[in-house]
User: Fold these one by one.
Assistant:
Number 1:
Amino acid sequence: MRRRRWPCVPVDRGIVELIVSIGAVKLGEFTLASGARSSVYVDLREFPMHPREFREAVRRMASRAGELMGSTGAEVIAGVATGGIPWAIGAALELGVPATYVRPEAKGHGTSRRVEARVAGRRVLVVDDVATTGGSLAAAIEALRGAGASVKAALVVVDRLQGARERLAGLGVPLYSLATLRDILEYMAGRGLGDPYLLERALAEVGAR
């Protein structure tokens, strides 16, 4: 059985520069949300503290989201709580399309929903900030499908290249990103930004091209 192939999307060099410029890339020893240890952490929650850079980053996200919505027929943007919410809302406002978000679990009061909108019968683009193993994205996709939505694609700002793309492919959902962790680390290494030893370790985690 042939593996499904989706079109490749070129890296957004501008988003790489913005991510590095606001100090969102941390080198050291970190535990990721997946539980794995890493020499690098990309903290995109830094962006709202830098409004000029954040505005430009959201515009870039909106541009890519618009392209994907046009090619896949998606009509709603759904952010993955909590990191994906500002990107989803910002992109939706730029594009003038509906938006919602997906909670990690149903809240215990009010409507007790995981998906904060009626999405039954709607075609959805899922948005998050960073993808590692794809666990949060996969859970959001299943929640959206459980609510009656058709998930057409997923888009993140940064793909760490640690299994998310393959995991979502297994669900029949292509994963796209504005940039990969390798793109960011190679940009930093090429400009002498950051500790060379830690950069080398971090690049080893994502592997060679």
Number 2:
Amino acid sequence: MYTPDDIDLQLLKILQANSSFTTKELAAIVNLSPTPTYERVKRLEKEGYITKYVAMLDPEKLDMGFSVYCNIRMKRLDNKTAQEFLDLVNSIPEVTECYNISGPFDFLLRINAPDMAYYRRFALDVLGAVEAIATVESSFVMSQLKRTHEIPLPQFPSKREK
């Protein structure tokens, strides 16, 4: 298995903060020429360290700024029920995140909606129609204090304890 070196980790840090840099710009930042930089990025993609490039959108500007976290408890949880629930969740655009969690609930969903009235209809018509769901507990986001998808990276290998 491939282990990223300090230059790879620098590239990952840069790209996760801003993936719109060109190879030439990345090369200048990490002090390499463009060809090895391009090859490193391609290797990081191939090895699965980089899984996707996306643009983070402002949900407020798109009238989807009402965020809700829903804890879902299933009546019964087995492989078939979990897969059916996952298939449903993947088909619902308002569900922007889904986690299978431990504890008193089985799933945690993040839902984006325009407002409370929309979410109420969503909870009743969409989640309420799922026979396998026993409980839905909703928490409403009052204000967003931090938003990132950046993964904390280990210190560059040369700075780690060996």
